[in-house]
Amino acid sequence: MAAPRCSRCACLLLVFIYSLYVVVISEEPTPGNEQHASVVENPQTAAETEKQPTEERRWEATQVDETVPDDAAANKQDLPVPDSVLTSTPPLKDEFQEELVIRPLHSGDIYASFQFRTVWETDFTRGSKVSHYRLFPKSLGQVISKFSVRELHISFTQGYWRTMQWGQPYLPSPPGAELWVWFQDTVTDVDATWKELTNVLSGIFCASLNFIDSTNTVEPSASFKPLGIANGTDHRFLRYATLPREIVCTENLTPWKKLLPCGSKAGLAVLLKSEKLFHSSFHSQAVHIRPVCQDEPCKATSLELRQTLNVVFDLHASGQGKREWSLFKMFSRTLTEACPLASSSKIYIDVTDNPEEDQFELSPATHLLSQAVVLGDRRTFSVYDLTQQVTFGTVRSLNVLIRWKSTEGDMLRPLLHAERYVAGYGLQTGEIHTLMYNNHPFRSFPVLLLDSVPWYLRLYVHTLTVTSKGKDNKPSYIHYQPSKDRMRPHLLEMLVQLPPHSVTEVTVQFERALLKWTEYTPDPNHGFYVGSSVVSALVPSTVAMNTNITKEQPLFSTFFPTKEESSYFIRVYTEPLLVNLPTPDFSMPYNVICLTCTVVAVGYGSLYNLLTRSFQVEEPNPGLAKRIANVIRRMRGVPPL
Amino acid sequence: MGLLSDPNRRRALINLLTRLNAPICALCYFAGVCWFMGLAFEPFTLRTYMSENAMGSTMVEERFPSGERALATGKEFAAHKKKVGGMPVDWLVKTMQAQGLEVFTQSFSRTLPFPDENKERYIVKGTNVYGILRAPRAPRTEALVLSAPCSPGDNNNQAVGLLLGLAHYFRSQVFWAKDIIFLVNEHDLIGMQAWLESYHHTNTTGMDWSPLQGRGGSIQAALSLELSSDVITSLDIILEGLNGQLPNLDLANLFYAFCQKIGVLCTIQGRLQRNDWDSVSGYSHAVQTMMLMVMKQASGRPWGDHGLFLRYHIEAATIKGINSFRQYKTDITTVGRLLEGMFRKLNNLLERLHQSYFFYLMPSLSHFVSIGYYMPAFGLLAVILLLRALDLWVQLVSPPAVAADGVGDIAQQSSPGVLSVLTPLVISHLTGAALYILPTRFQEIAVEHFPVSETEAVVLTAIAVYTAGLALPHNTHRLLSGEGTEQGWRVLKLVAVLYLAVLLGCTALINFSLGFILALTLVPVAAFVTPHVPKTLSAVVLVILSPAFTLLFSVFFFQELEEMPVSFQDGWLLYLSVISQGILDHYLYGSLVYPLIALMVYPCWLLFWNILFWK
């Protein structure tokens, strides 16, 4: 028993020395230990003293990483003492933030985007086993460490984002389920790991991800780069798959909500009531896990989990002619508190289009404003900070209300917009048309188009044409991987330059394959889905495009457009396709059996008849008297006449 | 099988067939016609039933409330239409946008091969307006279409009004799983053709259209609406589409089921259903209804805007409001409820309509005859051709039995036959090609030299070529192969009979009605023609049974069935216009009846004409 105690002491001592050291270096008069304690008890205040604790945390974390393994090594024979680690390590290794952005859309609909972010200063890559979880969901943590996942992006979407009416979403996602994963480069058999991972995720999210197999998985070479920090981008460690047919409903929402630290008990998550969320025009929920830098020099990484939920409420379906939105009307709940575990909890309302309150009216009024460049556009937001008691006012509940004043507008012309359809008729061939619109008045920009087409649509690649403005547009990069029947899909990636103010049309013809009769789905006449194609682009920003910026900003700042704002990355998904394949009449086997049996019986019967019959010359019939005589003779035992 | 493997019995059977060939053929013909007439007899037909489970047992409630408002919208539309003198595009766009639809327009233009005198149009320019109701949480993979044509004059304003009313009402509902496209098409079928071609990015008829900006995925079903009065007495469903294609029977069943549920009088071919099937008048009513369907289907033209959808494997029907002087009146709210119900059921579909029949005839809306029942009628006619062919074959093979020694003799006899068969075959097909090509090519020349309009020129050229064909090809083989032999005409007739059998068989598979009507007239010709029958009489009979006269009779018969009998003079004019319409249908929508008749059936008939004048 002495050894553990001893180690505990050593550990404490080390911690103490280190913290003293920190204090000395930073020359901060506040005693470090005290601040620790306060942060532990009240994580909300962390935001206020943000700089200081993060710096300390960095020190603490490195220290723990160094000491704990040593410790464990020192007393390997003894029981591991998690207690000591817990008490000794400063527990502020993870942090949780929640946020809701509400954007009144151009069409009069309303867009609500939830983001829940958990950052955990841990590193699964080192191979050290992590067994203690606080805010980070354990089910995901175990998956990440077991399958050596570097990045994981999964989204479930019900509905199609209407770019022409709603503009760009904060986080795009294709209809159905989408999953893309970057594995660590230590993984030897990526395909097997991927298969296993999809099955596990299928269980976690209650979704049919187990239908992801080699026939719908691709390895995009350029379209999906790691979003977190990464050393290499060898696309052999990337897997991408979509299930356009996946239906998203409450059974997917519940496990998603369970991953939140506060569940749906407190904070913004109380608004997530499925009966309202699924009474909308668009619903998308996603989980993004990626490694991010812990701090400026980026010596160590932490793991970021972002859970996002986007929903668009329909103006026409729910309001009886009254154009009015409130939290209560949208979610049938109001807010009373922030999640106690959250370090920040805020509601942002996009009021950019509403500078003089002539579009809509917002109540309760808030004086807190925030500006950010989102999707290449400088937006202004009204902010409600839920960690402040003032926000809830005297009624102790917050119900943000938006009352529209103007009528709805025309369709938008988003800078980049894509759509896709199947052309032709009949069940033999067809043509896939992908249209990409560049609505920028004078800038052209390149886009990466990713198309993953199932093998049963046999693409004729020689018919691939890319035209814009009536002229041939030669892609500067083409990556094509042909399909293998029942093995893998077609993968087509292209880098295309979109001329300004144009429509670029990519067409490719295909032949519809005849499936084996067991390969048809139970509803073959519904058709077969082809997943959305993905258009990734660096789009010139509208901020840079704005020629009249001198009004708002000092002149010296506006001559050259700043580089950060000159273009921004967006990803646009086209609609999935529903393609009919030649479908047999499934009562046909019965008919075939009947028919073949008849044919075989008749054919075989007559042939057999001919083969076995003995042919002989027919004798003329004996007369009646002779026959009677013969019968009598046979009875008598005498040979017949 | 012993029957065929035994040479004696086989010989006996063949003897029987050749000896009794004429009576058996007559019997078959008679039986075929009787079978066909029996199809309309109610005990022989099946009751319609809903096969598609997704549309069968599910309950939907119809609550469409705003018929009055729809009528007001229709009036407004009429006013704007009058003001603009055509399609009020801007007004429609604005109205649809106000209802929360995504609105798009499409312009198109088409120059007809020759002026259409029925509709008085030659260079057609127009605009289609359509709005898409996006289904909530649907990924734009499936769509339904409701269309109403913007017709000239005072027609169809109520249909557009109801379409907009339904759009407004549907927009506020949440249960849609498929996008719904509300389409107002100008210049009826031409506009519809332009829209459909653009939607599927095909161009089969050389029309100019602007590409569509918005789509809703693959269209699962479509309804076209025609309403021209504020109240209606009954609703009529029109099924016959391009080339005699029919929508899945479930669509008709759906219509019938909702008419029953809501209590609207429903008709097919404009005829109510009668319950007294056992009386003569009841039976003749059913026969007339079925014959109307057969005539319409045989014409191969789309009988409503829905007809063009069928090419794209989209189940579609036209619903037409009829206002006659009956007591029973239905207001527009009820029609709206009926359409709402149908759309909600179609919205429930999990797969395309495929469960029920695609090949059927309907003697009444509640009864149908499936392909399995009507095909024997055609089969009985077709078997005559096979019997005749067998007879000819036996005759060709057995005469050498007299000469007994051999094969060389047969070869010697039939070898000149090859040329003598080929020549008329080629010449008659060239005549057919001329019939197909010349009318539209030579209209300018004809207009220059004769005092006729372009349309008359086309029709009269067609008739002239047809008639010239009678004079031209017969006996031409003599120039090449000298005197026609007895053997020669037999070989030619054998070829012609088999050709006709194949031709009619294929036609009947695709368009039963056309195949059957052609078989009714051509099979007797094929059966009796030899060079030895009295020439003049046979020639008259042959001409009367030729495809052109079949068409003439059909025109009169159709008018008779529609209870609008015409005098011979009017009938003749109607006949001419039917020919021009048939040619136009081919060039505008890709109907195959005109090329089939010109390139296949007419040359085949010419072969028999040739045989009659064999020397």
From TrEMBL, chain A:
According to its UniProt entry, the protein's GO biological process terms are: attachment of GPI anchor to protein
Signal peptide range equals: 1-26
Residue spans with biased composition (Basic and acidic residues)?
A: 48-60
**GO cellular component term, pick one:** GPI-anchor transamidase complex
Name the residue ranges with Polar residues bias. Answer: 32-47
The organism's superkingdom is given as: Eukaryota
InterPro entries recorded for this chain?
PIG-T
Keywords tagged on the record: Signal
Instruction: State the residue spans of region: Disordered.
Output: 31-88
Q: What is the protein name given in its UniProt record?
A: Phosphatidylinositol glycan anchor biosynthesis, class T
From TrEMBL, chain B:
Its pathway is:
Glycolipid biosynthesis; glycosylphosphatidylinositol-anchor biosynthesis
Membrane topology value: Multi-pass membrane protein
Q: Does the keyword Glycoprotein apply?
A: yes
Keyword terms: Disulfide bond, Endoplasmic reticulum, Glycoprotein, GPI-anchor biosynthesis, Membrane, Transmembrane, Transmembrane helix
Q: Which residues are listed as membrane-spanning?
A: 20-41, 371-390, 496-529, 536-558, 592-614
Q: What is its main location?
A: endoplasmic reticulum
Q: Under the cellular component aspect of Gene Ontology, which terms does the record hold?
A: GPI-anchor transamidase complex
Matching entries from Gene3D superfamilies are given as:
Zn peptidases
Please cite one Gene Ontology biological process associated with this protein.
Answer: GPI anchor biosynthetic process
Identify the PANTHER family for this entry: GLYCOSYLPHOSPHATIDYLINOSITOL ANCHOR ATTACHMENT 1 PROTEIN
**Protein name, per record:** GPI-anchor transamidase component GPAA1
